[in-house]
Each structure stands twice: as C-alpha cells, then as structure tokens.
Amino acid sequence: MAHGPAKGFSRWLYTTNHKDIGSMYLWFSFAMFLLGGVFALVIRAELFEPGLQIVEPGFFNQMTTMHGLVMVFGAVMPAFVGLANWMIPMMLGAPDMALPRMNNWSFWILPFAFAMMVSTLFMEGGGPNFGWTFYAPLSTTYAPPSVTFFIFAVHIMGASSIMGSINIIATILNMRAPGMTLMKMPLFVWTWLITAYLLIAVMPVLAGVVTMMLMDIHFGTSFFDAAGGGDPVLFQHVFWFFGHPEVYIMILPAFGIVSAIIPTFARKPLFGYSSMVYATASIAFLSFIVWAHHMFTVGLPIAGELFFMYATMLIAVPTGVKVFNWVTTMFRGSMTFETPMLFSIAFVILFTIGGFSGLMLAIAPADFQYHDTYFVVAHFHYVLVPGAIFSITAGVYYWLPKWCGNMYNETMGKVQFWLAFIGLNVTFFPMHFVGLAGMQRRVPDYNQFFADFNMISSMGAFLFGAAQLMLLYNVISTIMSGKKATDEVWEDPEGLEWTVPSPAPYHTFSTPPPIK
Amino acid sequence: MIKNFWKDNSTPVLCVKLGVTVVGMFVFAIFIMPPLYTLFCDITGLNGKTGGKYNIEAQKGVDSFGVDTTREIKVQFIATNNETMPWEFKPIDKTVIVHPGEATVIKYYAHNPTDRAMIGQAVPSVVPYKAANYFHKTECFCFNSQPLQAGESAELGLSFIVDIDIPKYVKTITLSYTLFDITGEPEETLNEANQNTGIPKVLQLVSIN
Fold first, then answer.
1. Number of structural domains, chain A?
2. Which of A396, A322, A398 is nearest to A355 (CA)?
3. Is the model's pLDDT at A375 over the cut of 90?
4. Residue A322 is among the residues annotated as catalytic for this protein
5. Is A96 an active-site residue?
6. Catalytic residue among A64, A140, A171, A319
7. A285-337 pLDDT tens trace
8. Mean pLDDT along residues A447-467
9. Looking at residue B81, what DSSP letter applies?
10. How far is B93 from chain A (nearest CA, A)?
C-alpha cells in the first residue's frame, strides 16, 4: 500500500494500475468521441440543405466512413473497456486486473492504430470512403491506396480488443474475492464477461476478413473478386458474422451499467437478477445466428430469409425480459432523478424505440423497402446513442465521484441530460420519416422534399454536440474542484466499489474484502 | 495432466485456451468460411454459379442421355460487361428452345476494339438458382480466359445439356455472363478462375501466394 503513482508522464506510459489504465481508456475514448462527432457534424452540415455546398461528395463518403469507424472502434468500445478496467476489480474485490502488463500494452497500441487510421484522411486519394462496413469490392478493387493503412489499423484495434478481453475473462474467473460466487457478481461484471467471450469469438473474424482484403489487394488472391472465381457476397457474410455480435458487444456492457444504476435510484434491489444473466447469455448466443438480416436484399433463398427473420425476432424476447426487469425494478420504488438515473431512464425508453424499429427491419419482405435508407440510420442511432453513449455517460456521472472524490455539478448534469435528450430526438426521430419516404443513406445530396426534416436533424445534431462539450466541462471542473463526495456517494448503493474511500485509493482490496 | 488442462482455469492456462480460440477463429474466418460458403453455394446453387466442365461418361455409367422430347425449356443468354471492360460482348443466339437431355451448341461474340492486346474472363450465373445444378456445360469459353489482340474478334462457343431431372416448374433458364478485364492479373488468378469448379480451392489459392 505504501507506494503511490509515479510522477510525470512515465506514470502513464509504464502504468500497470487498472485505475490509471481505465482513466486513459476513458479519456482516449472521449477524444475519439469528439473527433467522430466532428465528422458527424460535417455530414449534418452538408445535409443541412439539399444540393452540394460544403464538402465534395468524395470527402463526404470519407466522413460517413470515418464517423462510423471512429465511433464504433474508437469511442464506444474503448469506453466500455475503460469502465471495465476501473470497475471490475473494485466490484469483485480484486487488487488489480489479472494481467496488468498486457493491460498497459492493449491500451497503448490503440492511439497508434487511430493515428494511422485518421492520418489516411491526409493521404493522396483520401481516407477510407467505402462505409464503415467496408463492403468488397468497394474496399478492394475501388478502394483508395490508403486502404492498407486502414487494414493494419483494424488489425491493431483487434489485437487490443482481444488482449483486453482475455484480461477481463482472466480477472473475472480468477481474481474474485473469496465468497464472490459467479451468481453474486454485479450485472456489469456479468455482461462484460459475456461481452469478452463475444470479442474473443468475433474479433479474429474481423481480422480475418481484413486479411482477405489485404491478400486480394496485394497478393493476387480472389476471395471477393468475381473475375477470379470469388464472390463479393462472401465478404458480407464474413463481415456480418463479425458485425452482428459486434453490435451486442456495444450494448451488453450498457445493460450492465444501467442494471447497476436503476436499483440505486429506485432504492430497490434489481428485479430478476438471474433472469438478467440468462437473458444476456441468450442474446449473446442469438447474435451468432442472425447475421444475414443485414443482407436480406443480396438474394438469399426464401428459407434463409425466413430463418434469419424469425431468429432476429427471437432476440426481442430476452431483450424484452431485460426491459421489463428494469421497469419492474423502478415500479413502486422511491425514485429520485439524479443525472445518472435520468440517462438510465432515457436509455430504457429510447433503446426500446430503437428495438422496435429493429423489429420492423427484421421483417424480411418489409426490409426491401427500408434497406439502405435513413430509416436504418435512425434505427441504429436510436440503439447506439441512447444505448451505448447514454449508458456510458450515465456510468461516468454515477462513478465519477468515486474516481475523483468530488461531486459533479448536479444542475449542470441535468441541463446536459436534457440538451442531449432533446438533441438526440430532434436529430434522429425525423430520420425515420425521411427514411420511410425513401431517402438513401450515404448520399451527400437529396430530393428537395426531404429538406425540412433534414434541416431539423442538422440543428438537433449541433445541439447534441454542444451537450457533449458541457459534459466535458462538467467532468473537468469536477476533477479540478467541486465539493467532496462521501464514501458511499449515493444513498445506500449496492456494490463493493462503494465500500472504499472516495476518491478510490491507488491500490484497493490488497486484502480481499469479506463477502456477505 | 490432460484432464487438469480442461478443468484448470488458472490464469496462464486460461490465456492459452483463449489464445487458441482466437487463432482458431482467425483460421475459421480465412480457411474454413470461404470454402464452406463455396461448397454450400455449390450444393444449393444459391449464387447462380454453374458447375465446372460436365463429363457425360462420368455420370453413373450412362453414356448417352435420353432426350425428354415431351418438355421444352427456353434458355436465354445475356452478356454484361463489367465496369470498364471495353470489349463488344454479346450472344449471337439470344434464345434457344431445348429439350432436357439434348446437347446444344450456341455462340457468343466478342470483339476487342482497343489498340492493345487484352485478356477477358467470363463469369457465369444462372437464374433461377435452383436450375444451376441442372445446367451442365460440356464446353464453355468461360472455362478459360480469352485473350484477344487489338481489333481482333472471336466467336466463343458454349455447349450445354439441360439435365432431364430438372424440376418441372422450370420453364425458362437465363444464363448470364459477365465479362471481366483481367489483363495483367497474376497467372494464378487466371487458372483459379478457369477451374471454376466450386470445390474448396481457397486453400490452394492461399498456398500459391
């Protein structure tokens, strides 16, 4: 216990402390979130009015691609890994992660991966312009020369995620305090355990698919080249075999965060703990057998369309279990509405809306109408922004007092919530309408009669962006000053992390705590 | 020892297990999924890919097919140029009516209007996909790449047999060829395309490089 953090920059470079690494992940993620947000605002600025006014169509394509890639791999995933690093050892009564040196490495390769990927924007021919799904042959035959940098960046991100997951699994299976049985673990730990297994299973598939692209581009193979006997549709199958579990990788830890926050502010234990665990596991299993619902229009046989349609709809069952459990947890609870709770309730409501538009998209015959329209954009932003971003924000507000020892400004937090909530709905709700009316994704221009809704969307986007700067200000001012937080922070919250002082000491649980 | 390995979840052993899973999934993505996909499409005919060269003698000792004159099947031919392929490429016979079991020869026409020698590769696709496994090509220009000198033209032959077992509801088969410009592609790619058999061959492909 004697030694604290080293001084200066080398503390961060050489650190093996889960709290330091968690903080670095979170800051990195926030930087990427702002970068991806700037890309999104370029898109929304261009779409403010019909016609081309701000950027070239080629650059617009790079913006849609980079926005997706940076948000998925740079913002959401590292944020969850950061929260896992900070919270999992403290929730389990463990002194640190199981593999602290690998932990350091899996963080420090990330900035290099993203530096490489973002630098492609300044290269000749521009950065990736083929959409974040990088379908072949757009990403092979027609790709800009910089695609090789993109491929290596994806390899590095994949390596980082895989090492992070191995570390998390090893921590959860081997570092629990005595008496902390699996079914006593907080739900955030459970969802992360399952997420880590998903990552182990599908990140290598992502690495595989970009490796096949690399070989097609540089080594004369024809995995995805019809002229050489390959098949571009194969790309989509392999990509979505990774891509669909990836969607759940971005949402399962969010379920865990919300399952920690709602009981605290409803002042009731979580309803249906074990059903939550089984629902999470079921969602993870189902995520492997629904990938082709992203590809209903490629010419699947009718049996395939039906199978993937029904399997996809089946996911609504365990997800419904979770939503009902959260609602039941709140039912007749003594609820108060602090900022983390506001974000969590918004999560439950908005994620459900996104889930319902997902069910609409799951209907194979109807999907032919919705495919590649703004309806799809509305759907996945309704699940990802309230799902991942709101839950991460909720988690940050919830645990920030524990991390830095100071209480954040509650009024500013609430104002930020309402700005973000209004901004999000103003941005994405109109997209449902323009999508159903036939506006295509990923096109920098549109028909005049979509003009009003697009202008509203763009204004909402800038409001949402401003709300995030407010979050940044609130977090920084909390760390710098702010009134001291108590050790418990909230009123009788559940979990070992609240039994240590605020701020959490550099080393916690060097001796395992007693588990009731 | 072995028993312990499966039960042992201590951190080093766990890392080995998870690492092996990672490598396994990578291998699965590159070496198993593409051949499996090709095989699956080959069995079901899903992506409309027709089989390789059809050898009559090889079929269960039957050396001549009975022709089913009670049925007539319309076979339509389509030609498409991929992206920037500048050749003139079209079927000479646009439609033929055949009986199942009857050997038929038709021709496509290709002309290279450019002032340089080029190599083309035609890739076939059959609609409806359920007919793909019943459409047998005994000779086809798509089995080989097609070089053409500057300004040269060629008639490209295709002989085929529609299987007598073709499902009753199939009345029309459309055969589409997409012509790709493969001038300057590595030799392996060409050979690969020529043996368009649908048998898992990505393994060979990888080993070539």
1. 1
2. A322
3. yes
4. yes
5. yes
6. A319
7. 999 999 999 999 998 888 889 999 999 999 999 999 999 999 999 999 999 99
8. 96
9. E
10. 24
Distance, in Å, from the CA atom of A497 to the CA atom of A339, rounded to the nearest integer, reads 19
Q: What is the CATH number of the domain that holds A96?
A: 1.20.210.10
- Is residue A204 within 8 A of residue A258, CB to CB? The reply is no
Percentage of chain A with pLDDT > 90? 92
Give the model confidence (pLDDT) of B79-96 as tens digits: 988 877 889 999 988 899
Residues of B in contact with A221 (CB under 8 A): 189, 202, 205-206, 209
Question: Is the Cβ pair A215, B19 closer than 8 Å?
Answer: no
Chain A contact present for B97, CB below 8 A: no
Which of A317, A314, A311 is closest to A292 using CA atoms?
A311
What's the rounded Cα separation, in Å, for the pair A460 and A423? 4
Q: Looking at the domain assignment, is residue A506 inside a domain?
A: no
Rounded to 10°, the helix A18-46/A57-69 angle is 150
Rounded Cα distance between A233 and A225, Å, is 10
Q: Which residues of B touch A223 (CB under 8 A)?
A: 34, 202, 205
pLDDT, one tens digit per residue, over B140-188 is 888 888 888 888 888 888 888 888 888 888 889 998 888 888 887 655 4
Q: What percent of chain A has pLDDT over 70?
A: 99
Neighbours of B208 (CB within 10 A): 15
**Is the residue at A160 inside a domain?**
yes
Confidence of residue B202 (pLDDT cuts 50, 70, 90): very low
With residues binned 3-state (H G I as helix, E B as strand, rest as coil), the percentages for chain A, rounded to 5, are 70, 0, 25
**What pLDDT was estimated at residue B137?**
85
Within 8 A of A166 by CB-CB distance, chain B residues are 14-15, 18-19
Nearest CA to CA, how far is A224 from chain B (Å)?
A: 9
Task: Look up the ipTM and state it.
Answer: 0.87
**Smallest Cα–Cα separation from A63: which of A441, A399, A492, A450?**
A441
Q: What is the pTM of this model?
A: 0.88
User: Given 3-state DSSP classes, what are the helix, strand and coil percentages for chain B, each rounded to the nearest 5?
Assistant: 30, 30, 35
Give CA–CA dist A8/A14, Å, rounded: 11
A258, A394 in Cβ contact below 8 A?
yes
Query: Cα–Cα distance between A317 and A464 in angstroms, integer?
Result: 32
Measured CA to CA, the distance from residue A253 to residue A168 in angstroms comes to 12
Per the structure block, which two tokens stand in for B149?
């000198």
In a domain, A494, yes or no: yes
From A65, A106, A171, A259, active-site residue: A259
A204 domain-assigned: yes
Q: Is A511 exposed, middle or buried (0-12, 13-18, 19+ CB in 10 A)?
A: exposed
Among all residues of chain A, which has the CA nearest to that of B130?
A301
Mean predicted lDDT score pLDDT of chain B: 78
Single-letter code of the amino acid located at A237: H
Closest chain A residue to the Cα of B206, Cα to Cα:
A221
Q: How many CA within 13 A on the CB side of residue A209?
A: 25
pLDDT at B58: 47
Antiparallel, parallel or unpaired: β B172-181 and B73-81:
parallel
Q: What are phi and psi of B55, to 5 degrees?
A: -110, 110
The minimal CB distance from B26 to the residues A99, A208, A234 is found for A208
Q: What pLDDT sits at residue A434? A: 96
Mean pLDDT lowest among A16-20, A27-31, B152-156: B152-156
DSSP, res A333:
-
How far apart are the two ends of chain B, measured CA to CA in Å?
Answer: 40
| Chain A interface with B: residues with Cβ < 8 Å | 98-99, 162, 165-166, 169-170, 173-174, 200-205, 207-209, 211-212, 215, 219-223, 225-231, 233-234, 237-238, 241-242, 299, 301
Token digits for A481? 């000053």
Residue B3 binned pLDDT confidence (cut-offs 50, 70, 90): low
Residue A3: active-site member: no
Residue-number span of the structural domain to which A33 is assigned: 23-499
d(CA B75, CA B161): 11
